[in-house]
Amino acid sequence: MKTKSKTNLKARLLTILAIFTLGLTWVAINNTNTNNVYAEKGTAGIFVSPMTQKMILTPGETYVNTIVISNGKDSAVEVSYEAKIGSYSPVGNTDSKDNYGGVNVNDITNYNTIMNWITLEKDNGIIAPSEKDVLTYTIKVPKDAPAGAQYASILISEKDKDDDNLQENGSGGVIKSKFQLASAILANVAGETVEKGSIKSNEMPTMLTTNKLEATSMVRNDGNIYTDASYTLQVWPMGSDEEICTNEEKAESTTVLPDTERYHVQTCDLPSVGIFKAKQVVKIFSEESVLEKTIFVCPIWLMVLVLIVVVGIVVGIIIYIKKRHSAKED
User: Fold this and answer.
1) Whole-angstrom Cα distance, residue 274 to residue 315?
2) Sequence-distant (≥ 6) Cβ neighbours of residue 3 within 8 angstroms
């Protein structure tokens, strides 16, 4: 009787361990080590180059630059050109994690004075199919221009011949526009500049139930010039030096304008199960934050399976102890 009980107990434990082993085998077979891949989709339309122009300006100097507008459509388009604040400007969007969660074309600040320094060579043009138009513009910097950041955008609007599509523009006038593109101008005017920033947060989770790692951070620019914050993320399996994800040689970056905060997310696709080491480095001006963490990846189904195994083993041990105790009493 005693031998039969031991045999039944062993059979139950072997069954549980077999299920657990099959589960781990399935994970190993279906495990893919895939980093994030982003592809740009090309669509026929209007394209502007460059999308962003960064420059250093000196008070009293004049600068001449160009923008190329290409027509990828199969018909001619009529476009208009205008210097505006543009969508590059930050907004105080309470629904966003930072000041860059929306479009701002109306809230002029001291950092948009450059709009008054810009003169466009022309304000409209007609571009034939597969052809380009070159827009030349001049920036004449006043001698008393304040030091620090200045930003604006050259807006390119496709005109619509249908009068029913009239839309109000930011200055109260009316334009017939199907869409707008912009070439952002980011400038720092030489003089008494202030480079001051802070890193408000640098975070990563310790436990994941999916294989998607998100490393987040928030930086703030308290200076009077625009700057680029940089972000690197490295991930290794525990006990290995072979990186799963890394952008150490080509860090991600975001432009942070004065008096604003910017939220950023870096991602990495991890194997479905495992223990990993992760390191995120965030920099703005002379400030640097380094975060290193051990990350556990365990899907919910595996947690449930482990729980079942543990409970099964505990119950089996209790039953075995009780039966052994009963056998001694007999």
Assistant:
1) 27
2) none
